Amino acid sequence: MDDFILLLKDKESCILIKENISNFLKENLHLELNHKSKYYPNKMGVDFCGYRIFATHRLLRNSSKKRIKRHVKKWNKSYKNRTLNIPLTVQRINSWLGHSSYCNSYTLQQKVLGKCDFLYNNSAFSKIQNQLVEDMKNIKPEV
Is 100 exposed, middle or buried (0-12, 13-18, 19+ CB in 10 A)? Predict the structure, then answer.
């Protein structure tokens, strides 16, 4: 069943298959297709469960990407104001990482984690290191 992917080559085939499906549903199951039921070119992928699913790969929905970026901005603001609930936020990040790990999103995950000011990551360590170097330069030796 996992190997079954229905990709049709032309529009006429799609129209015919859609009519056959509609007839089957109506005659055998007494159901009708929603007026929103349409067919699309396979290059657009299928929008399902938070992913855009293509024949060769999966991507996160654009709305999911935008949402996590908005949350990160909000979390960073709360962190600067010292009002961030870090355990709850870490749970939310882990949940998002779990969801996004089922698609091709490694680079996106790294970018999102890199923008979280409240997490210790490579960018946080480099900021701390740069600050320490600057502080050491500004220290005047006592004579």
Answer: buried
- By the 8 A CB rule, do 113 and 96 touch? no
Measured over the CA atoms of residue 65, residue 69, residue 71 and residue 75, the dihedral's sign is positive
Q: Which helix (H) or strand (E) holds 59?
A: strand 58-60
pTM above 0.85, yes or no: no
Helix (H, G, I), strand (E, B) or coil at 104: coil
| Per-residue pLDDT reduced to its tens digit, 16-55 | 888 999 999 999 999 999 888 887 777 888 888 999 998 8
- The larger pLDDT score, comparing residue 136 to residue 60, is at 60
pLDDT tens string 112-126: 998 988 887 666 667
3-class DSSP assignment, residue 87: helix
Give residues with Cβ within 8 angstroms of 75, minimum separation 6.
Answer: 84, 89, 116, 118
Which two three-digit tokens encode residue 129? 């290191």
Other Cβ atoms closer than 10 A to 48: 10
